[in-house]
Amino acid sequence: MKRQREVFDAYLAAWLSRTGREPELQDAERRNPNEGPAISLIYRDFPQNGYVTGASYGLSGFRHSTEKRKPCELAIVMHSREVEWACIPAKIVGALRGFRPFGPGQVIGQVEPLIPGSQMRASMLGEPSSELGPSTLTISQNPDEEFPFREIELIQVYPLHMSERDYAWKHGVDALTRMDWQRLEPLRPPTV
Length: 192
What we know:
Blueprint: H1 2-19, E1 24-27, E2 39-44, E3 52-57, E4 72-78, H2 88-96, E5 107-109, E6 122-126, E7 136-138, E8 151-160, H3 162-171, H4 173-177
Parallel strand pairs: 4-8
Antiparallel strand pairs: 1-2, 2-3, 3-4, 5-6, 6-8, 7-8
């Protein structure tokens, strides 16, 4: 338990270095509370005024049996002041952790809108946008047996309309990402 808190503190310190500020923290609902925390880190007006950035904490300490990659967490950047967008990564972790490993190229659908009033009900996991910054956070200079990793990989969540989700499932995520669309705009019309 003490080690888990040390890793969380190191993760927060890495985000502090990136953002220059402390986050608001919010617990996310978890499908299985025995699998550990699912916490939202919320940054208002980051990377600039009028944006909200969020990250999960709770995925990096959980290793799926088929996972070969370094530990990861999910993150999001949206051109919005609605903090609900920043909570989506931790909600995904709380709902789906343990079912399969997370990685770029996955498309996740859900029944309800991602946030109240939104038309988007799906997400695509991908490489971090330039607004989010580098794809890794260094959390330790001295890995040990309990947490043998120096870095946590960030995977960005991109909200989708259902038509975009269906297009990605039919034609592949690469076909969708090659299209010209405003990935950080929550009020954008569907691309397809």
